[in-house]
Amino acid sequence: MAAALLTAVPALMVVAVAGPAAAVAVPYEGVSVYITTNSPANLYTVGCQMGSLDLSRPGTQHSLVVLEFGGQTTINGVWGATLYGGPNSTNAQVLAAVKEYAHGYWLCTGSDVNSVAEVALGTNNSNGASTVTYASGQSWAGLVNSFASWLGTVAYGNQVVAAGSNDIEPGFGDPGPARSWVDGYASVFTRRLVNNGSADGCPTNHIPGSTECGTSAHPSWGPEDIYHVSWGSPPAWPLPEIYRTDGAMAQQWYWLARYALQSHGGTMYFTGSTTQWRSCQTRSCSGLNNTVAAGYTQLYNALAQHSGTAQTPPHADDFKWYGDAG
Q1: d(Cα 196, Cα 194) in Å, to the nearest integer?
Q2: Is residue 85 helix, strand or coil?
Q3: How is the chain split into domains, by residue range?
Q4: Which of 59, 97, 289, 307 fits a 20 to 30 Å CA distance from 82?
């Protein structure tokens, strides 16, 4: 069972959906970012943008934001991250940058002293088995723990909460390393871990069998592997990619929730949905460009198909690249 979810409830925007389904209350999205810079000044600006956005919204916000720093690597024997086309950066450099994100968010919320951003420091499982390990999971949890501890010493800690994230995708690598990484994170964690990844090979119309979630490159994935890295491990929460406009990704996660119900006696509880609409404004991703409302609504309606999986996830996320507008 995953760690307890923070109790703050984000403000909602009501979106009417086509067809017989009722209108769905979609949370105001957290703007997540693929990070290409380790400059603290640049991360301050990104944090200020999120703070200003929450200030402009009615009511008190509880945004969940993923700052994704790319795959892990070692730099002169020290763990770090590759960033996305940016410089390889040590954990210490990542920490210095995210401290300024927190500073920027706090300062730019201005008169709104009650809204909170849960800032998840993110990596992925794309860099190969040598860097997706128990030790690298421990290292990433240590980075998140250090951020959380620092927040307890500054005024920003009133409005910023630390978390970890990993964009775990069956298309990136085999399940063994991904599971080991999550186990390493779980061995030392003090803050939760969100899996903002995918269920690439899973079926869209039935509960997956034991070997049905693999991809052509990495065929050994099964539903138990995705369950473990998304919910079965103590710190883990699913925040799945719901990119596809045809709804297939939402259906994959619905059937995984049904698998959890059948095999573990309880469903997975989703912390939200992830889209990439902002990223798609400057990059070609036809068919993978759900809006925030469409992605969240697809997941909500898919889970509502069965009384044992029906739920209202508290968050929505939308990714952009560092430097993109919005």
Answers
A1: 6
A2: coil
A3: 12-321
A4: 289
Architecture of the CATH domain 12-321? Alpha-Beta Barrel (3.20)
Tokens of 13: 């925007």
Per-residue pLDDT 10s for the chain (326 aa) are 444 334 344 565 544 444 445 689 999 999 999 999 999 999 999 999 999 999 999 999 999 999 999 999 999 999 999 999 899 999 999 999 999 999 999 999 999 999 999 999 999 999 999 999 999 999 999 999 999 999 999 999 999 999 999 999 999 999 999 999 999 999 999 999 999 999 999 999 999 999 999 999 999 999 999 999 999 999 999 999 999 999 999 999 999 999 999 999 999 999 999 999 999 999 999 999 999 999 999 999 999 999 999 999 999 999 999 999 88
β-bridge mates for residue 30, sequence order: 317
Can you list the positions of beta strands (E) in the chain? 12-15, 24-27, 30-34, 62-68, 72-75, 78-81, 89-90, 116-124, 160-167, 193-195, 236-238, 272-275, 315-321
Predicted TM-score (pTM) above 0.85: yes
Exposed, middle or buried: residue 76 (CB in 10 Å: 0-12, 13-18, 19+)? exposed
CA 180 to chain centre: 19
